[in-house]
Amino acid sequence: MTSTDATLLERFRAAAAVLAELPSQAESYAVLSEADLLEANQLFAHSQVALRNGGALIAGEIAHRSAPELGFQGLARRAGQRTAEQFIRVSTGATGRDAGTSVRIGALMREAATAGDVNAVTGEVATPTQPWLAPVVDALKSRSISIEAAEAIRAGLGIPTSSITAEQLRDAASQLRDAAVSLDPDALAREARAFRDELDIDGVALREAERRQKRSLRLFVQTDGTTKLIWIMDPETAARVRDLYDRTTSPKLGGIRFVDKDRQSLADSILRDERTIEQLASDGFEQLLALGADADPRFLLGSGAPVVRITAMKTAVDTRKGFARFDGQESLVSVQALERLGCGGIVKPVILDETGTVLDFGREHRFFAPKQKEALALKWGGCASPGCDRPPSWTEAHHIEFWLRDHGKTNIRDGILLCRHHHLLFHNNGWEIQRDEYDKYWLIPPPERDTNQRPIELVTKGKILSDLLRQRAAG
To answer: Which structural domain range is residue 179 located in?
Structure first.
């Protein structure tokens, strides 16, 4: 052991000894004055940053000595653990998330410290794999940010692409490092994602699709006989669900009180309800699910659907390049999503000019009326996409001439039914639908799918209309 090693270890021993002397009885803290209590909290915060920083450096070194190429000779495997993260979790009692953060940030700091070193075996010169995070590493060295803040910046900014340079990410990292002084890690993560979205407008649709891929719904039966549901929602789903949640619970949350007499009465009844906010939400969503399950499968679900606002710049709508944003959601969505959602009346588009002036709040009659939806259900019999077997109750009404882009009309001749998957696919991937003079409908693939863009006929799955078409063909 070198003198440097001994000094470092002695410091850790001394720090551990001092921390062990801190009182562990609640009454020792109860006698503190408010000023002393707040100062103690601040001292604890500074100490925690230093301790977590040191812990990350240890984790980074353990990860280096547990590299996969070392095989079973790696430190973690010799200790009986598969990975460095697992070793840190087991040996320190940390959560999996905290262990992963320690390893990633520790490895980042180690890379920066060893940059320029020459590997004695391979002769390779060590270089940082994430040089754009140099401002973050500097802040970690000076202990001006926590490793949690550093991880928020790292994860939120992502990596360079063909359209985003490392230098742009470095500038963003520098600004986020400064912002970390006044933002907690969760807020900093949102800020970092917003930076990335603003830098990479062309990637908004890709990240929108990535977030949608992460959606999931899982049920867990608990030991006390209750069942827990965990729902990971993409921003679009979250915007719909949040609207329904707010409408179910808003009076108890101090939300807007309705001036309409009938709705005012409902709001008052919710206020008087003895159930908690969480119980109201649970019962409300249970009822919504029951109503949906009992709906006639020949017809569309949708009456009383949540209506949320989505905002975009006029230039983005005109050029179909740019982004839109749901009210209350941090993540950006594509203009194609705005077009698609404008079909079904589940959003109220708000269009702004370059000065921020509202140009259009959307036209209320863009929605297909219930009777129109019933007619579309009879006409199409389900999702109009070839080979799709989703019934009308699983579909959304789609304007074949987009409501926003083409100023399409809300009528039965210009409407078809699409399940959500195909509605997303057609809008986001550039598929078009045309109606000819014989009232036949044709699906036009994008050029990258078919360079000749040969039309594909859309054939109704509605039994009644099929009978009529056969009778017409037979004269």
So the answer is: 131-199
pLDDT of the residue at 100: 94
Residue-wise pLDDT tens digits, 286-302: 777 766 655 555 544 44
Report in angstroms the alpha-carbon separations of 157 from 47, 70, 152, 154.
Answer: 28, 31, 8, 6
Half-sphere exposure at residue 3, Cβ-oriented, CA atoms within 13 angstroms: 0
Residues 243, 373 contacting (CB under 8 angstroms): no
Q: Are the C-beta atoms of 423 and 413 separated by less than 8 Å?
A: no
| 192 shares its domain with 275 | no
Instruction: Give the residue carrying structure tokens 């009659």.
Output: 365
User: Which of 54, 80, 113 is the last residue in one of the domains?
Assistant: 113
Examine the domain organization and report whether 106 and 254 are in the same domain: no
Verify that 471 and 332 share a domain, yes or no. yes
pTM (two decimals): 0.57
Which tens digits make up the pLDDT trace of 110-160? 999 988 887 765 677 888 899 999 999 999 999 999 999 999 999 999 999
Contacts of 448 (CB under 8 A, 6+ apart): 430
Residue 250 and residue 342 share a domain = no
Adjacent-strand bridge partners of 311 = 325, 350
Distance of CA 375 to the CA centre of its chain: 36
For residue 343, what pLDDT band results from cuts at 50, 70 and 90?
Answer: low
Query: Domain tally for the chain?
Result: 4
Alpha carbons 129 and 148: distance in angstroms, whole number = 20
The pLDDT tens digits for 315-331 are 777 777 778 877 656 67
| CA proximity to 210, closest of 241, 235, 247 | 235
